[in-house]
Write the structure tokens for this entry.
Amino acid sequence: MDNDNVKIVSATLADIYLQQGYVEKAIEIYGKLVKKEPENAFYKQRLLSLKRDLKEKGKHPAFKGFLRKKLW
């Protein structure tokens, strides 16, 4: 699925991507949400948190495989 073609962006969609292990896609969605609603503190905080987590976890190669697994 190409995110550029996605017309609907929502926190729910981002959370679905997270549950499926697509952290980068979730970050992209939250980035679009922040641009759409720059005053929304939740979106900003969530975006920063995901970026920080990805950067930190990316230092550990085993985590990359874990991200691709379903969480349930």
